[in-house]
């Protein structure tokens, strides 16, 4: 019988210090969007505050909503990256501004990062150790 603790308990340090998403030629380090990463909720709330009425009325422009979320991710979820290049093929150093640009320019990458940042399993130490063992064995 599987315990709910084994299924859902996460490692708080992984949730805040982040895990690496390996996209082959480049890697992006992300924290969890939620859980122990309280900073994400605070940043998102602060960025949404000026638009609260529009959000409540469901009249906020989709582009504005995506930009707010991209800015919140750049400040509190995406922690850095390695070997990432810009549209010109030149190295794109990590900065909050470059992160927002990347997330806005590449909505499918942003969708993947959002999905990964919400996965409970990604932030369980046991899962990471098993994955590391499997890749070392393979």
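Q: What amino acid sequence fits the structure above?
A:
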């Amino acid at each position: 019988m599987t315990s709910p603790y084994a299924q859902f308990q996460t490692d708080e340090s992984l949730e805040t210090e982040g895990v690496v998403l390996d996209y082959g030629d480049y890697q992006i380090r992300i924290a969890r969007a939620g859980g122990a990463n309280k900073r994400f909720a605070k940043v998102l709330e602060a960025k949404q505050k000026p638009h609260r009425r529009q959000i409540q009325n469901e009249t906020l422009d989709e582009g504005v909503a995506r930009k707010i979320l991209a800015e919140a991710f750049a400040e509190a979820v995406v922690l850095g990256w390695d070997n990432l290049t810009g549209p010109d093929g030149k190295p794109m150093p990590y900065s909050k501004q470059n992160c927002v640009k990347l997330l806005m320019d590449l909505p499918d990458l942003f969708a993947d990062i959002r999905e990964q940042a919400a996965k409970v399993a990604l932030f369980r130490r046991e899962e990471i150790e098993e994955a590391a063992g499997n890749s070392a064995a393979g």
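Q: And what stands out in the fold?
A: The first helix runs from residue 4 to 8.
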